[in-house]
TrEMBL record, chain A:
Protein name as annotated: Metal ABC transporter ATP-binding protein
Domain of life, source organism: Bacteria
ABC transporter domain location: 1-240
Family, as annotated: Belongs to the ABC transporter superfamily.
Region annotation Disordered: where it falls in the sequence: 217-266
One Gene Ontology term of the molecular function aspect: ATP binding
InterPro entries membership: AAA+_ATPase (IPR003593), ABC_transporter-like_ATP-bd (IPR003439), ABC_transporter-like_CS (IPR017871), Metal_Ion_Import_ABC (IPR050153), P-loop_NTPase (IPR027417)
One of the Pfam families matching this protein, by short name: ABC_tran
Keywords: ATP-binding, Nucleotide-binding, Transport
Automatic annotation (TrEMBL), chain B:
Key words of the record: Membrane, Transmembrane, Transmembrane helix, Transport
InterPro entries: ABC_BtuC-like, ABC_TroCD
UniProt record similarity statement: Belongs to the ABC-3 integral membrane protein family.
Pfam families in the record: ABC-3
Coarse class of the protein's main subcellular location: membrane
Location of region: Disordered: 273-299
TM helices/strands, residue ranges: 12-31, 62-79, 91-113, 133-151, 163-182, 188-208, 220-241, 247-267
Protein name per its UniProtKB record: Metal ABC transporter permease
Cellular location(s): Cell membrane; Membrane
Organism superkingdom: Bacteria
Lipid bilayer topology: Multi-pass membrane protein
Species in which this protein is naturally found: Lipingzhangella rawalii
SUPFAM superfamilies for this protein: ABC transporter involved in vitamin B12 uptake, BtuC (SSF81345)
Length: 266, 299
């Protein structure tokens, strides 16, 4: 993202933001309420249009970016869907739509690749410990369980990059730790992860870098501020053994469920 | 019992009713999921202008209604995207414009009066012609085919538009598709229940079904079942008791909804799922289903 300016109704929310996120990095975008951190993430995804500046994803300008299956977007909460019920399995399976839609028209009509899509869905459910909940209605679940549904939906597209908007909001402490563990396993798999966070909390150990926003400007970009101090020591430069310079996109079609492990059902 | 099948007009009416009962809840489920429950009403009002235009130009009112209501759906969608703050006002403007335009134009049409419009306002299923049945069949098949083919895409879009965008889905195209399918459904249902009650067939069966289900797929199928059941039951009771068919169909659907609310409560009490404890979700569903944020999640 370069010199990005964005806003709603002529009120700028982002003022000249430039940020590079490297493959395999885990970056936290932090800041107070209204600092523009959620807008930053939405601008990265093209949900909020930029007034000026540019966004490139995996080296492609956003306008021409078509590899949407590589991106897994985890919104802050599950949209209510007008009260129409949906099962965990249905919501997670809908995450495969990016893969389906990225195929050429003929393959879409013939539904080729449906078996691969289903396998990814099964693995995504498994990796988030949701297999036994697959037939439950998402509206019956706790906040932590719903967050896992949202992450599993993002994983069902087989992405290499995850963008999470406040994944800990509305999740109780015990489940926050379980979620943090699940995310940590994903970082070890080489995922690039961008998190919008109010506070680091249990995610502190896996965040390499924090971008702190204030009033639409970057006020800090570097190692995350650590109130406890243990990880903030100088020399805590994170060298990531899993992220090669060529990127992780190539081998990302196979999500290894055994390595991701299962979450304890909470 | 089956003597009502002896009459041609009744066979046509029943066929039209079944098609409406299938198509309206099918697209209606997505509209309710998208929290646009009033969309059908808006398009219905606009369709009335189309009907009047048909009389004025001495062409088929059904065909002009198709054209005008599709245009109306496109305008509603454009206004919804452009005017982020005044979406409901934009819809209201279309309501009034549609009704006023219809009454105004019908006055100009030779030989047609407001009474002509009444058949379209409240439905007149017994006057369905052979040509109407063809048009209704083709449109219903189109709506059902679109829902079947784009079901997954529409599900993602109606669940969360931002996720749809971040999945690379053509959000604008799919939004227009929903609007246009809703417009076609309005025209299909117009002859059976009338433009003022069209939206009821899109919303009420869905509201009833979602009391009893936990899966989207089952909801849409059950809603279609309730739609067909209400349409057939309403039409046959109208035949035997001589009451207004459109209104009877809608009242039966509402009765099914009431029973579903009670049934849903019993189901959930029986299941004793811990997550339901005092959750406002269950209550919200009962009060005014389509437009509230009930079922909204987490804390």
């Amino acid at each position: 993202m370069r010199h990005a300016v964005a806003g709603y109704e002529h009120t700028p929310v982002l003022r000249n933001i430039s940020v590079d996120i490297c493959t395999g990095e885990t970056v936290a975008v932090m800041g107070a309420n209204g600092s523009g951190k959620s807008t930053l993430m939405r601008a990265l995804l093209g949900i909020v249009p930029l007034t000026s500046g540019s966004v490139e994803i995996h080296g492609t300008p956003l306008r021409r970016f078509r590899q949407w299956p590589r991106i897994g977007y985890v919104p802050q909460r599950l949209a209510a869907g007008g009260g129409v019920p949906a099962t965990v399995g249905e919501v997670v399976a809908s995450g495969g739509i990016a893969r389906h839609w990225s195929r050429p028209l003929l393959r879409r009509i013939l539904r080729t690749g449906a078996r691969d899509d289903r396998r990814l869905v099964t693995e995504a459910l498994d990796s988030m410990g949701l297999t036994t909940l697959a037939n439950r209605s998402v509206h019956e679940l706790s906040g932590g369980q719903q967050q896992r549904v949202l992450i599993a939906r993002a994983l069902a597209g087989g992405p290499d990059t995850l963008l999470l908007d406040e994944p800990m909001a509305g999740v109780d402490a015990a489940n926050q730790q379980a979620l943090a563990d699940a995310l940590e396993r994903l970082t070890h798999r080489g995922y690039t992860i961008v998190l919008v966070l109010h506070e680091l909390g249990p995610l502190a150990p896996l965040v390499h870098r924090a971008v702190v926003l204030s009033d639409g400007r970057i006020t800090h970009d570097g190692p995350p501020p650590q109130p406890t101090g243990d990880c903030a020591a100088p020399g805590h430069e994170h060298i990531h053994p899993h992220a090669g310079p060529t990127g992780v996109g190539s081998g990302r079609d196979t999500l290894d469920a055994t390595q991701l492990g299962g979450l304890p059902g909470a | 019992m089956l003597d009502l099948l002896d009459y041609d007009f009744m066979r046509r009416a029943l066929l039209a009713a079944v098609l409406v009962g299938l198509a309206a809840p099918a697209i209606g489920t997505f509209i309710v999921q998208r929290r646009l429950a009033l969309l059908g009403d808006g398009i219905g009002h606009v369709a009335l202008t189309g009907v009047a235009l048909g009389f004025l130009t001495s062409t088929s009112p059904v065909l002009t209604a198709v054209i005008v209501s599709v245009l109306g759906a496109i305008i509603i969608e454009v206004m919804r995207v452009r005017a982020r703050t005044g979406g409901d006002v934009a819809l209201a403007l279309l309501f009034y414009g549609g009704i006023a335009g219809g009454v105004f134009l019908i006055g100009l049409a030779p030989g047609a009066t407001n009474a002509t419009l009444t058949a379209y306002l409240f439905g007149s299923v017994s006057s369905v012609t052979e040509q109407d049945v063809y048009v209704v069949s083709v449109l219903a098949a189109l709506v059902l085919a679109v829902v079947a083919y784009f079901g997954r895409e529409l599900f993602v879009l109606c669940q969360d538009e931002e996720v749809a965008r971040a999945s690379g889905l053509p959000v604008r195209f799919l939004s227009l598709l929903i609007g246009i399918m809703a417009a076609l459904t309005v025209v299909i249902a117009m002859r059976v229940v009338g433009v003022l009650l069209v939206s009821a067939l899109m919303v009420v069966p869905v509201a009833a079904a979602q009391q009893l289900t936990r899966s989207f797929r089952v909801t849409i199928l059950l809603a279609m079942g309730i739609g067909v059941l209400s349409a057939l039951a309403g039409l046959s009771s109208a035949y035997y008791v001589d009451v207004a068919p459109g209104a009877t169909i809608v009242l039966i659907a509402l009765a099914v909804f009431t029973v579903s609310v009670a049934g849903g409560r019993l189901l959930r009490r029986g299941a004793q799922t811990s997550e339901w404890s005092g959750d406002p979700t269950a209550e919200g569903n009962v009060e005014d289903v389509p437009r509230t944020d009930q079922g909204s999640v987490s804390t």
